[in-house]
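Example record

The entry below shows one chain as it appears in the dataset: sequence first, then structure tokens.
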Amino acid sequence: MKKLSELLLQLIELLKKNQNQNWANYFSACIMVDGKINIENILQAYGGMCSFNDFSLSAYQEEVKRQELSNKILKLIDELKYKND
């Protein structure tokens, strides 16, 4: 979970740097006070209309970073869920 938390914090920092406070707040709320991570809320961000999948940053290099972080986060969640099943 520590790696997932680190990736989320990197994503939040990137979003704030690019003036996207709404998504930064959303992902910040996925990290609970006790350090646990709400994986279901993270996954919900990636589904449906106007999801995080539909969002992009205006600067190309920043968007590449966003996509890389998103892919790492989703892959790690998949690995964690596989371990728990």
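Notes for this example: The longest helix spans residues 60-84. The CA atoms of residues 56 and 67 lie 9 Å apart.
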